[in-house]
């Protein structure tokens, strides 16, 4: 099957540096919630066996449908809709300066992965794009504000963002701090404004969506990941695997999870459907980071002509560094497989976008 | 009656007001003190909404004397302390020291250090006024205090106002560094909404209908966003360092958005949650706009008054070197008249409500007007 080309036969893994999980002071709530054996690594044979078992007819049928699906066209079309909606959501009202800054950051481009996930999740449970658009815009506002604050000189100090000067370079730090705050506030106001929806939407669902989104981005969500990442930077010893996972689940996966879940909530999904979509999002969020780490190592090896082992010692903590390249690839496969298995049981005609997105994240080359 | 307790402070603010001219039977006659009808500051009054005098719903069953009597028996100080204590307990529960501890420490550091909790208490008082109760109001009361706190955290940052101290202790960024301070502010903003929207935070026996929670979220977002609190901060940034004085309408814009609007949100959200009728919510909104602006006008008057006493200079000379203030633009006397107008208007908006339940808001308006610092 195509999805196993991630396991090359030529590269050998570096030594596995499995740190003990006791480097944390307190248990990881996210790990418990995910209920995954991330700390145990099945052999390649076991994985292959598990994969064969999963080749059920419905999965095969889903794969066939997915192949005919114009993923690129889908992504571009949805991104365009989102861009139009974002443009309307933040008009250039008084005071012009702050709205200019907000628009500069928000409309600078980007693939709009999170809003598209939100829309796809809404559609998969029976909703439609118009219904999903307000929460979709909200997650993009939040994603943008976290980048805007992150780029500040006293944070990550990035002068460029999406190929353009970062907000603070153009507007100064004070306006940038405020633009981020305003985008965060606006995201909730946007979801809560019933006028933004095509027809009457249940207030109870909006309340759930607001509660979910705010939880995903707060001090036990996105911010938690950023804080732990900051605490882990610059320390001598290798970061433990569970801490690495915590960072990725919170810094990256959390907002993807929020996007998918609120799309499903607003679309009227059942609790079971929402749970499965949540797990799908957690898997692809982590998958994104694992693949990122694998690509870093792979590129580095080719460019520098060194073995993977030598590179790993000097890099920041990554999955290949902790568990080796081969096990990292297997982990990626397992995550991809798990993500897709969450989509079984949904209407195969509607799962295509999410299946393709998972594949895209897994197989991209940059 | 209740005027007497404020007499010593009110004279300083309203020097024309002599003890004998105050009566216990009605609202303090501040507008008559100078014998001059207050000039029409159409921009200022227009901004807060012309009251009440055009369409007051006088509660015929509650004569004016009972208002003052009820108010006189009201232990305002005890009320404020009691409600603030309840709010502090709720805030403590709302931000437990969960993992990662550092961010929650920073959030708690700034949130729990103290403060009179004026905004949460306004929220609770408004909720009770329209028939709700403290437990129903508490999540939103906490939310507005979280918002207030996060705006202070971000405001104190070196790249913003660069304040090293806040509420008597080092500012958040001094204690935890700038990155954590920015994130703590962001996290408090997110938590405000999640706390407000989570049905589990409300008394199970008296839940709030979801459509009211949605309204409350919308109101909060509007008040703190790019056309609310942030708008005031941005315009203030734009206006700072400009040598010529800014116009009165710009000054008012800044004050309404930087200060008054969060007070407005506190009151309005409390009234929404408490199930207030639309017209009740709107009158409370107007009340809040009056006291919000009143707060700033009094602030400016106090700054000037203290400065004159301390430096032994005339008010006129000080005015030239100060940042733009109401006394600078209108003169001290007219600023006092404006304060008097705003106080009177605030109270007019409360007419028609149950006088006993309106007592906290009435007293709060007086407190804002007559405080000495």
UniProtKB/TrEMBL annotation, chain A:
One of its GO terms (molecular function) is geranylgeranyl diphosphate synthase activity. This is Heterodimeric geranylgeranyl pyrophosphate synthase large subunit 1, chloroplastic. Keywords: Isoprene biosynthesis, Magnesium, Metal-binding, Transferase. Pathway: Isoprenoid biosynthesis. The keyword Cytoplasm does not apply. PANTHER family: FARNESYL DIPHOSPHATE SYNTHASE, OS07G0580900 PROTEIN. Signal peptide: none annotated. Belongs to the FPP/GGPP synthase family. It is an enzyme of class 2 (transferase). Coiled coil: none annotated. The gene is GGPPS1. InterPro entries: Isoprenoid_synthase_dom_sf, Polyprenyl_synt, Polyprenyl_synt_CS, Prenyl_diphosphate_synthase.
UniProtKB/TrEMBL annotation, chain B:
Its EC number is 2.5.1.1, 2.5.1.10, 2.5.1.29. Pfam families: polyprenyl_synt. One of its GO terms (cellular component) is cytoplasm. Keywords: Isoprene biosynthesis, Magnesium, Metal-binding, Transferase. One of its GO terms (molecular function) is geranylgeranyl diphosphate synthase activity. Pathway: Isoprenoid biosynthesis. It is an enzyme of class 2 (transferase). InterPro entries: Isoprenoid_synthase_dom_sf, Polyprenyl_synt, Polyprenyl_synt_CS, Prenyl_diphosphate_synthase. Its cofactor is Mg(2+). One of its GO terms (biological process) is isoprenoid biosynthetic process. NCBIfam families: FPPsyn. Belongs to the FPP/GGPP synthase family. This is Heterodimeric geranylgeranyl pyrophosphate synthase large subunit 1, chloroplastic. It comes from Apostasia shenzhenica.
